[in-house]
Amino acid sequence: MVDDHPAPLSPTTLRELQRASGELATSSVAEMERRLPWFRRMPADQRASVLLLIQNGVAGFVSWLHDPDQAIRLTADAFRSAPKDIARWVSLRQTVELVRIALELFERQLPGLAADDAERAVLTEGVLRYGREIAFSAATSYAAAAEARGAWDARLEALVVDGIVRGDAEESLLSRATALGWDPAEEATVLVGNPPSDDPPAVVFEVRSRAARLGRPVLLSVQGSRLVVVLGGETADGTAPARIAEAFGPGAVVAGPTVATLAEAHRSASDALSGLRAVVGWPAAPRPVRSLDLLPERALAGDPEAEWQLVDRVARPLEDAGGALLDTVDGFLEVGGVLEACARRLFVHPNTVRYRLRRATELTGLNPNDARDALVLRVALSVGRLARARGLW
Asked: Do residues 245 and 261 both lie within one domain?
């Protein structure tokens, strides 16, 4: 069995080490300032914190040499006593540079304090063990700091997404999102659906990995049995929402409208959640399905916003275009989409019906010859008549 304890040092050498500890720390910082340009640029209070860290480490090292029965706690104690935010302004790579310089100085100066060759060997071995322990301690300290920051970021991200869903005040929402690195001017699209698993870290990894491959920012939160994802960037071609939808679990995925900034994301979230409640009414809906494509189901489910959009996007443009166009669309739907039957009903030539239907498609983006678009047109016209009867239009 190997003895981890160093050979004892004479009381005289230990006293010399104790007296030299402060000078060792000061010399280490001076050497760091000389060799590291980034260290010289640090504010005085931050350099003082590094000096405190080194002083604690040297004191612990000397204490261990004085009492070999205690564990090597010098580095752990030193890091615990350092300012809590030190890991924010000194990276792990920079910490390694600082430690290397300090150890080189110790290797040069400590052996000179020994009374004989045996004590010099003890001090040299102690410095080597010191370097090993400080490396482990630094890695552990930075890992713990990263884990704490990750947990805090996850909580902050959940607050941002919850705020978007609830429609929180713009100022608080944007400040929190900015702290997470989100560009407030970035376009945003909210997608909702089922999470792929009951393991939140796995869900986060799945969504973030796909977003990273797309080069898109995302914010996400698992809210009970639903996953809410805020996707950054334009979505005109539908590629990005389709890729992100692959990270959701089985079932429908609904994408709200793309809005200009995160401050408007509540509207996208509201429409997406309304669509998720109503998508059961369209079993053949694509994945993801746009909330705009679910307007009939949303209106039937009692969403007043969907009713207003049907009136504004479909019923009103057809009525404003003139009675003939509205009558043609109505008649075409009533006869089941048979062109000749519609023409006979209206006492016009079939080409006139074709022209009017093309005009209706230009105004509404809906083709009466398509079965799904025909359903949207029929529901929109019915909603429009009901709204007019109630004096809402």
From this structure: yes
Please name the residue ranges forming H helices in 36-116.
37-40, 44-66, 74-81, 86-89, 92-109
Decide: helix, strand or coil at residue 248: coil
φ, ψ (nearest 5 deg) of residue 391: 75, 20
Q: How do strand 254-255 and strand 289-290 relate by DSSP bridges?
A: parallel
- Confidence (pLDDT) at 6: 53
**Taking the complete model, does pTM exceed 0.90, yes or no?**
no
Residue 19's domain spans which residues?
11-148
Pairing verdict, β 254-255 and 218-223:
unpaired
Average pLDDT of the residues in 172-182: 81
Residues 204 and 326 in one domain: no
Span 87-137, pLDDT tens digits: 566 776 777 788 788 888 888 888 888 888 888 888 888 777 777 777 676
Nearest partner of 111 among 101, 122, 103, judged by Cα: 122
Query: What pLDDT is stored for residue 74 in this prediction?
Result: 47
First-to-last C-alpha distance (Å) of the chain: 91
Residues 319 and 326: beta-carbon distance below 8 Å: yes
Beta strands in the chain, from DSSP E residues, in sequence order: 188-193, 218-223, 226-232, 254-255, 289-290
Q: Is 130 helix (H, G, I), strand (E, B) or coil?
A: helix
The last residue of a domain, from among 297, 322, 347? 297
